[in-house]
């Protein structure tokens, strides 16, 4: 190799190293509180987000009401993906969010589900048949999908009839687990937990008509702890884009 070529190679290598160093310097982590129903979609979105932006998500999953308490007590979350629109709005009113950052990222769908094939009919008549021993729902005080489930039961006139059969999970993930493990014959879950690419992935389900409960509008917001983190803003922008929208819709959400 000539001296000139060697110098070029050395300079080129240095430039390449500098480019990678610059890229690494631009990559940030963002701490995200995610409603339990959105666990599968956000994990799929996280992989694309990291590949496309270099930023990394650090996610925690749980019930919306519990996250509210944690945020008010100083939890290090920078972005909040709620299972409702009222909790982010409340945090906004209380001055805990970045002004103008709140938006609806998905509209959830409720489903009555059993891990058993053929157990739940397409119109949910199994509920009024009352032959089951346990009905799983999420805590309606902390989880919007649990609240929606109680509204459906009230609409059907079944609140008192099923009261002794209710098995209550702390969040929608636990409500799903009660059914998937056979501890409850059926339960109200988020459609996203049992649905992928246009079909229910196992067991049997009734997709509850949206008019039977209040809309499950799910809002995202940047919290004050994330106001100076570029990755927080990048995530919110990414959730509004076409790649994220395709993933969200594939899990049965509306946009």
UniProtKB/TrEMBL annotation:
Residues 1-27 form the signal peptide. GO terms for biological process: molybdate ion transport. The keyword Iron does not apply. Molybdate binds at residues 64, 172. It comes from the Bacteria. Gene3D superfamilies: Periplasmic binding protein-like II. It holds the Pfam family SBP_bac_11. GO terms for molecular function: metal ion binding; molybdate ion binding; tungstate binding. Keywords: Metal-binding, Molybdenum, Signal, Tungsten. InterPro entries: AvModA-like_subst-bd, ModA, ModA/WtpA. CDD domains: PBP2_AvModA. NCBIfam families: modA. Belongs to the bacterial solute-binding protein ModA family. The complex is composed of two ATP-binding proteins (ModC), two transmembrane proteins (ModB) and a solute-binding protein (ModA). This is Molybdate-binding protein ModA. It comes from Pseudomonas fluorescens. The lineage of its organism: Bacteria, Pseudomonadati, Pseudomonadota, Gammaproteobacteria, Pseudomonadales.
């Amino acid at each position: 190799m000539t001296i000139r070529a060697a110098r070029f190679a050395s300079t080129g290598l240095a430039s390449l190293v500098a480019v990678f160093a610059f890229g690494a310097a631009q990559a940030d982590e963002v701490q995200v509180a995610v409603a339990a129903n959105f666990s599968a979609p956000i994990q799929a979105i996280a992989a694309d987000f990291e590949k496309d932006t270099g930023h990394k998500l650090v996610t925690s999953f749980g019930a919306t009401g519990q996250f509210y308490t944690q945020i008010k007590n100083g939890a290090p979350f920078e972005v909040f993906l709620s299972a409702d629109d009222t909790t982010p709005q409340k945090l906004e009113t209380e001055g805990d969010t970045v002004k103008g950052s709140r938006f609806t990222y998905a509209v959830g769908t409720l489903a009555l589900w059993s891990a058993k094939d053929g157990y739940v009919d397409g119109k949910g008549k199994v509920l009024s048949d009352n032959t089951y021993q346990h009905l799983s729902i999420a805590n309606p005080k902390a989880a919007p999908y649990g609240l929606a489930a109680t509204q459906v039961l009230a609409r059907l006139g079944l609140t008192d009839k099923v009261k002794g059969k209710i098995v209550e999970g702390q969040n929608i993930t636990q409500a799903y687990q009660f059914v998937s493990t056979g501890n409850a014959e059926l339960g109200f879950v988020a459609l996203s937990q049992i649905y992928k690419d246009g079909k229910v992935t196992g067991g049997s389900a009734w997709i509850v008509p949206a008019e039977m409960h209040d809309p499950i509008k799910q809002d995202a917001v940047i919290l004050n702890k994330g106001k100076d983190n570029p990755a927080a803003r990048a995530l919110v922008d990414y959730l509004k884009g076409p790649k994220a929208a395709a993933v969200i819709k594939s899990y049965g959400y509306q946009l």
